[in-house]
Amino acid sequence: MKISGVHHVAIICSNYEVSKKYYVDILGFEVIQETFRVARNSYKLDLKVGNTQIELFSFPEPPPRMSSPEACGLRHLAFAVEDIEASVKYLQSHNIDVEAIRVDEITGKKFTFFKDPDNLPLEIYEI
User: Fold this and answer.
1) According to the CATH classification, is domain 75-127 in 3.10.180.10?
2) HSE toward the beta carbon, residue 43, CA cutoff 13 A
């Protein structure tokens, strides 16, 4: 088997409208398709992020994330940015708390973390 890349990442949110606004209007992800699944009383929003897709799901009363960010499973999502300082200022202008910028001791690149409306850790990493 040869894996050629990441096709998509799935995120379950607790408030679909809040998360949709966050990922589309603030982070600027492009909507590919929005589907309401009647049988599940759930939305599925396909978003384009560069060459990757994010599936944003809503489910009635999903359980909360166990701990942040050190629980087993997906630790965080990291997004590439060209200018981390400008990206941090942009997020802060939308009242999003952003951690202090750090430098990756292995690559020497700048990065930082922030959270989505459901406390999912997100990272921006300067390329």
Assistant:
1) yes
2) 15
